[in-house]
Hints:
- InterPro entries: RNase_HII (IPR022898), RNase_HII/HIII (IPR001352), RNase_HII/HIII_dom (IPR024567), RNaseH-like_sf (IPR012337), RNaseH_sf (IPR036397).
- It is found in: Cytoplasm.
- By secondary structure, this protein is of the alpha/beta class.
- The chain is 36% helix and 15% strand.
- The protein has a five-stranded mixed beta sheet.
- The longest helix is centred in the C-terminal third of the chain and has 22 residues, at 130-151.
Amino acid sequence: MLLKQYKYPNEAGTDEAGRGCLAGPVTAAAIILPKNFQNSIINDSKQLSEKKRDLLKPILEKEALTFGICHVFETEIDTINILNASILGMHRSIDQLKEKPKLILVDGNRFKPYQQIPHECIIKGDSKFLSIAAASILAKTYRDAYMKKIHEEFPMYNWAKNKGYPTKEHRNAIREYGLTKYHRKSFKQLPEQIAFEF
Length: 198
């Protein structure tokens, strides 16, 4: 699937990874690609194997005009909520760009204005536009690497495999071992938490 560029030669694509996880940060990335950049493998990071994402990461880092990565950690997620944390992460990753974009392309339907730069929210943008797909790959690979690192501290949750998502295995480990400092305390960690106590 060949994705396209948008209107401007220096559009910035931005996306996040880990929004639905029970543990770990939400990680955002922003990237500006060269005008004629092409890569036939690039797609929405969720459609790519981990092997392909890991292959594309150094290519994007080398070929990008500029890129930025930001982790927003659990305490901040619990304080400002996951939507605001996701948008904040995108803003902080755009802060790191060495070149000011003329347009910001955002995956999804929610964003807050960034400085005076126009932005467009595009639902499933990571499967439509190169710059958003590239940002999704960087966000996912950087977050996965972080989750593998903290897996070594708490191997019983198997974050190296589930990356903090609410898998059956992860939830069973929470039942057995409880929560860690990396878990998002504002998230419903277990299905039975929905029961009310009177």
